TrEMBL record:
InterPro entries attached to this UniProt entry: Epimerase_deHydtase (IPR001509), NAD(P)-bd_dom_sf (IPR036291), NAD(P)_epim/dehydratase (IPR051225)
Pfam families (UniProt xref): Epimerase
Domain of life the protein comes from: Bacteria
Protein name listed in UniProt: NAD-dependent epimerase
Molecular function (Gene Ontology), one example: L-threonine 3-dehydrogenase activity
Similarity comment: family membership: Belongs to the NAD(P)-dependent epimerase/dehydratase family.
GO biological process: L-threonine catabolic process
Segments crossing the lipid bilayer: none
Organism annotation: Pseudochryseolinea flava
Length: 313
């Protein structure tokens, strides 16, 4: 049987670190090269790792031409809140980085490419409840605009260059193994760390701000399942809606209080409130469930239990 050889770009990020470990389990550690602009930290340092700036085209091409990669996971991006502070950087990394990877994948005959989109590709006039797969998309952040445009680039490469590119519109991803980096949904990660260390947390969103969210192990499973689905089952080549749960800050606080009764949450909304208000509250992911069998495992209380018990160890 032919072996897969896999490149992960942006492996040091919140999703990248856990996805790389999922890829090790599924394809063997020796068949995965993890890369990031900064050096390997924690468990990533135990596998194949190289420094890579995806915007450094000669460096990217040299790595891809030396290895016969069958799959590339391109995760390097500036997220929503950081992107609003540095829009030019967000656009450059999120757009040029993607196009460089898609071009290199065509040139070096990489079989499959994965690229993450986000609920940030939707906007204020998108239907907010059970947001459909195909609907109005009017993103207001540079991150969201780059995701919307990226989806179109992915579909264009599929249709015009025959590249097998696959994508998911992630909701807020919640894990405890790496600290988050610059997203609007990241309060739902920080809150667990602060609940354990300080027994209190100041939230930058209002108590009733509902957003679609997903536990990291479900996100990793969704990504690996999509990438191993037979090509003819992957009918959407822009990006699939996927969902697991929706909650607001007061609900995650209540879930934590079941384990830490003295935990207190206070609210001080900032510029991220407007970003959250422009996004869907829940997502209709029936296309992913029908086309390639997506199903989530974790709800809010199960996730809280899992994260708190792991962080306490
Ligand atoms: C962010 O908050 O920017 C990200 C996202 C929803 O894509 N977590």
């Amino acid at each position: 049987m032919k072996r897969d050889k896999i490149l992960v770009i942006g492996a040091g990020g919140q999703l990248g670190a856990e996805l790389t470990q999922g890829l090790w389990e599924r394809y063997g550690k020796e068949n995965v090269i993890a890369t990031d602009i900064k050096g390997a930290e924690g468990v990533l340092a135990t596998g194949n790792f190289e420094i890579l700036d995806v915007l450094n085209t000669p460096q990217l091409i040299s790595l891809i031409s030396k290895n016969k990669f069958t799959q590339i996971y391109h995760l390097a991006a500036v997220l929503s809140a950081t992107g609003e502070k540095n829009p030019r950087l967000a656009w450059k990394l999120n757009m040029d980085g993607l196009i460089e990877v898609l071009d290199a994948a065509v040139e070096y005959k990489v079989e499959k490419v994965y690229w993450p989109s986000s609920i940030a590709a939707f906007g204020p006039t998108t239907p907010k409840i059970k947001t459909p797969q195909d609907t109005i998309m009017d993103p207001t952040t540079i991150y969201g605009i780059s995701k919307q445009a990226g989806e179109r680039w992915c579909e264009w490469y599929f249709k015009n260059k025959g590249l097998d590119v696959r994508s998911l519109r992630y909701p807020g991803l919640i894990g405890y193994k790496t600290k988050p980096g610059g997203g609007t949904t990241d309060y739902a990660v920080d809150i667990y760390f602060k609940a354990l260390s300080d027994k209190k947390f100041e939230c930058f969103l209002k108590p009733d701000t509902y957003l679609p969210m997903m536990y990291m192990s479900d996100a990793v499973k969704a990504t690996l399942d999509l990438m191993s689905a037979p090509s003819e089952h992957v009918k959407i080549r822009s990006s699939y809606n996927i969902a697991a749960m929706s909650f607001c800050p007061s609900e995650i606080a209540a879930s934590i209080q079941k384990h830490i009764p003295e935990f207190e949450i206070t609210y001080k909304p900032d510029f991220r409130q407007a970003i959250a208000d422009s996004w869907p509250k829940s997502i209709n992911d029936s296309a992913a469930r029908i086309d390639w069998g997506w199903n989530h495992a974790f709800d809010l209380d199960e996730m809280t239990q899992e994260i708190l018990s792991n962080l306490k160890l």
